[in-house]
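Final report, closing paragraph on structural work. Over the funding period we assembled a curated collection of sequence-structure pairs, and we close with a single example.
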Amino acid sequence: MFDFTTRVVPYLTPSEREEVVSLLSSSDLAFDEGADAVALVEDTGGAVAATASLFGSVIRMVAVSASCRESGLSAVAISALMEAARVGGVSRLFLYAKPDKAARFASLGFRNLAESGSAALLETGEPGVGVYRKYLFEKRAAPDEATGGAPGKIGAIVANCNPFTLGHRYLVERASSACRRLYVIVVEENRSLFSFEDRYAMVEAGLSGFGNATLLRSGSYAVSDVTFPTYFLKDRSELAVASEQARLDLSLFCRLYAPALGINARFVGTEPDSAVTRAYNEAMKDVLPAEGIEVVEVERLPAPDGAPISASAARRMMSSGDISKLSSYLPPSTIEYMREKSLL
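Its predicted structure, as stored:
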């Protein structure tokens, strides 16, 4: 635009940071450190009139000064980041926006994936949600193959499985027996102790014997840095933020997974320890039934000492070198895989 200049910078100077924080605050948005790039749209006096930040493949912290909100400067800032991402080899981008502002970014190629009360998640570029939806349709069991427990019930479990425990297997067992077909969706985000490839392989081995269970990868569309970043930042998350992001993640589940796979039930374990995961479970109970999806919460399987079996407890044992009780937490298939891969 003629009266403004646009810069994309890898970091902010102290004065730029102060301006960006103030601009975000005026739009009821919080500032987060760690952006890979920040777009600054400045007026003729050098004041920041609009900004947007790129975190990996996610554009967020988009704000425009009150006097310029009808001038299209948010699109200018986002376009600058899109070009910087393209030059850097990033072909697919996600964008957080206010729900009432989401439609204006269609001209930039963004499609609306999901909405919560205060945020919309948009996507542009390839491989996009259409490619992943095709993957889900290809994995969907044919009617004559979906023969498990209860007629008509198609269930889903979404889990990180870091690593796959006896608790996970117990949840699968309960869900499998209650469903005609069960989809086990493994979180693909690589922010865990074990890589996605290892976690997926451990789950695959652990599902042996469950003839009505289908294993799926999540892509970027379930409990990922894109849809639910506080899941991986439990030590600094605020429950209100976690709850809202859970609703965004669940909105995407309802729009994408449920129709593509025919899911009408979601199974989850109780959460005695993590407040963030508990907030997700509560959001699930609030959001999914209204969309025709039953929420089935299964009590955690206890270890011999009475403590609930969890992946975090198993990781603590491994970290401390005290692996004598691991067989009470992990199925033989997980232990065998870890030993084969020198992970244990």
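The first strand starts at residue 5 and ends at 9. The chain has a mean pLDDT of 90. We thank the funder for supporting this effort.
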